[in-house]
C-alpha cells in the first residue's frame, strides 16, 4: 500500500477548503486521497486554522518541522525567493514532505493553488510494515 505525505505551505488565513482543493489538485487523477497518511508543514503553522481543520476533517496527523530541519534540505527543493525572504528557508512544502516521509521520495513537486503550496511524498517503507518482507528469526 502506498503511503503518501502532503507537504503544505500556505498564506495565513487560508481555509480548509482551499487546502483541500490544493491537495486534491496535487494528487491529480493517479494518486488516491485515501493513501494520505499525514500532513507536514513548518512549525509556525501549528495553529493555522485552515490547516488544523483540514487535518481534523480527514483524521490526518500534522507533523511540523523547524526552520533548521527544513534548511538541511534546501539544496534538494524548488527555491522560492519570497519564502526565503519571509521565512528564511528555500521552501516549505517539499522539504516538509520529504522530512515526514523519512527517506521516502517526492512524487509531486511543488504545486501552487490559491495561496497554498503542496508537494506529495511517498513514505519510505517502515521496517516493520507489511510492505517489507519479514525475516524469520531462528528458534
Q: What is the rounded Rg?
A: 15 Å
Termini Cα gap: 30 Å
In CATH, the homologous superfamily goes by the name CobE/GbiG C-terminal domain
Query: Strand arrangement, largest sheet?
Result: 3-2-1-5-4
Instruction: Please tell me the overall pLDDT.
Output: 86
Notes on the structure:
With 139 residues, this protein is of the alpha/beta class. The protein has one domain: Nucleotidyltransferase, domain 5, CATH 3.30.420.180. The protein has five helices and five strands. Strands 3-2-1-5-4 form a five-stranded mixed beta sheet, sandwiched between helices. α1 crosses α2 (49-57). The longest helix has 12 residues, at 16-27. Residues 127-139 have low confidence and may be disordered.
